[in-house]
Amino acid sequence: MTAYAIELQSLRRTFDVRGGAQRLALDRVDLSLPTSGVHGLLGPNGAGKTTICKIIATVLLPTSGRARVLGHDVVRETATVRSLLGIVFGGERGLYERLTAMENLQFWCAMHGMRAGPGRRRAQDLLERLGLGSRAQHRVETFSRGMKQRLHLARGLVSDPPVLLLDEPTVGMDPVSARDFRTVIADLRAEGRTVLLTTHDMDEAQALCDSVTFIDNGRLLGTGSPAHVRGMLGNSRRIMIDDVDAAAAGDLTGVLDRLPAHVRARLQIRHDPADHTLSIEVPTETHVIAAVMSAVLAAGHTAVSAAPPSLGEVYLTLLGTDAQGARRGMEVG
Amino acid sequence: MYTPVTWTVGWLGRILMQVAFFGLIGLLLQDPEAVRYLFIGQAVMACVVETFMAVASTTWERLSGTLGLLVAAPGALWPVLVGRSVQWLPSGIATSSIALFGLGPAFGVRWHPSTAAIGLCLVVLTALTMYPVALSVAALVLRGPRWRNVASNVSHTLVMLITGVTVPTTFWPDWVQDLALGMPLTHGLAAIRDVQESAAGWDRAGAAAALMVGLGACWLALAAAAFTLFARMGRADGSIDLRD
Amino acid sequence: MIRAIGAGCAHQLRMMRGTPDWFLALFTTPLLTAVFLTIFQASARQDLTTYAVLAPALMALWTMSLQTAGELISQERENGSLEALLAAPAPFAAVLFGRIGAVTLVSLVAFVEAWLVGWLLTGAPLPVPHPVLFVLTVAATTWSMTGWAGVMACVFVLARSARTFQNSLSYPFFVLGGVLVPVTLLPDWLSWPARAVFLSWSADLLRDSLDAAPVVMAGGRLLIVAALGAAGYVLSHALLTRTLRRVRTTGRLAHA
After folding, report:
1. For B243, what's the count of Cα atoms within 13 Å in the CB-facing half-sphere?
2. What is the pTM of this model?
């Protein structure tokens, strides 16, 4: 067996758009994801995440380049790849709302070549496992979003696949459902499955992923373990101050301007008017951090934290946008 | 809903074929009289079929989730729902007229300019006065929107069966004939047949028109009452959702 | 393969449960039977009773298959489940034909409805002098209907604008299919294309099977129904292959 669960080599995909032009959705993407573990694919809407998922899932052909699942080519060995994959496309859609949870799963068991008896048992097991056992005979249209998403996952698991594609599975979930869902994904990893997870949610990626890959405009921007990609921002700390409106940001910038010139020159100050936060990027030198912290505290701010940059900040820096794709924050320093 | 092309090829074509289908039954009967009878009946029926689309389009208000907002609005509900589906009327009148006056001669249904003018007025009036009949059905269907297409088709086929579209009303037992008298279509269609066959004039049409307007008004009152009742029952049992 | 057809069939029946629209034709069949029967009764043509009973049943068969064909693939797309279906190991064509077949089978209820209404309105059950031929013709018609519904499913998907005309495909085919008026009574220029529509052969055979007179060339005509149906399967297979390849290469189902 190959060491890689998913391998993309120079994967390229263009789409025809009106007027004869072409839109480049994936631009020579190279990516190798080892077997087992949760691998995050992060990027804004339209970055190419779903295109990658579709190509791996065999529902879309690459324009050029190759994609392999456990060593099997998605174009030439379609049938084998399909038997190795479980697919969960995100959102509420994709389930048969007027059928019960049990009927939905039975249908998909049949689509994976299972006989009626084993299919029913498999469906029952999966529903129990995902906490839907008591709702097996209820119509899906009565389900909450979180329950639907768990049913989606159950559907992806009907064939007991070694590789799972989860395309934004927690989008629009309430926080409690999302947390439960993450527990399930952690269990899947513990079983030795490989999970490719696309998400907007940096906290989710940080909590779940063994590796993360950033993608934007069809290009890979960076890949590695969460710790590794955080290191890509350089050796710095971020001091975050909450409850800072525009006026307070101005005052605070004035306070920081009065710090010694060699300290002030090394600070990057950014105010986010939407979040009412002010972030100050500082070099990892104790005396600089101490000087900035005491100035901030002296100015009367107590909601202050200092930490290495989060995945979200890596994302912001690499892509210049937040996870929703909006450009956020403005330089005030 | 329609573009000029989809209306002409899709809808008009379909209705003309339906009218022709029934006209052809006359061929099977080897009776030119039957060809004309069935043709005129179906041609006029075409505008009724289309007014009955109001049954489905009234429930769209419920399906699109705006019904709750309408009930909560200060005005009465029924005028909105009465106005909601009038878009079917021009299309229905046009389809019927094209079938009757355009395709008619091919089936032996001939017109003079004067009889055609009277016929056209009667078609317009038939569509206008059958519209509230459709609205009354629509008010019932608001309680169970998933039945909208079944209700619309079953009710207009029932109307077709008893109002002299395919067989003379006298074919039916008395009680069915009495029911048919309550339908404006029965009177409009009979007048159109008289005008076409025996060149009856404006006085014949006028008498039918008066009856149709009277009946139409009664059906309108019934529809308005049914809509109002629906809103009241919906408030009482909580069946009106803001997000249906 | 067989399992996928069966799964498609079972799935479709479940999907239809509680959705009256799927059964629309079964609601109107008794009424249409009454419409046709009363036309013939009013003209004192009781000899045409079989025509009046068969026509609504054939119309229901056609309407329901056509509707299913128009809806199935697009519904899966709107539901967001098409991609998962395409990515599943089961052959998509088998699932599709299983589902269409389920609807076609359900639509056979219309034959029973029409027969009962015929009994009710004429006061006597309609005899079936050639029961074997009748059953074989219904079976061949069901087979052909399913094949051609498959063709239409692909056409509706490949040319999305065709769906606008989905409803218009009913009455032209009721005329060309001779469901009520035999195509031999149509003008020459119409009866020739009508012979290419399997429904016209089915309708003639069904009428003959309800007539006491001996049926001429029953086997050959039955074969023509089945062969026209087979042509439908061949064509739909080609179109479906093209459709699915198109989805995978362009990422889109329909032509713009």
Report:
1. 0
2. 0.80
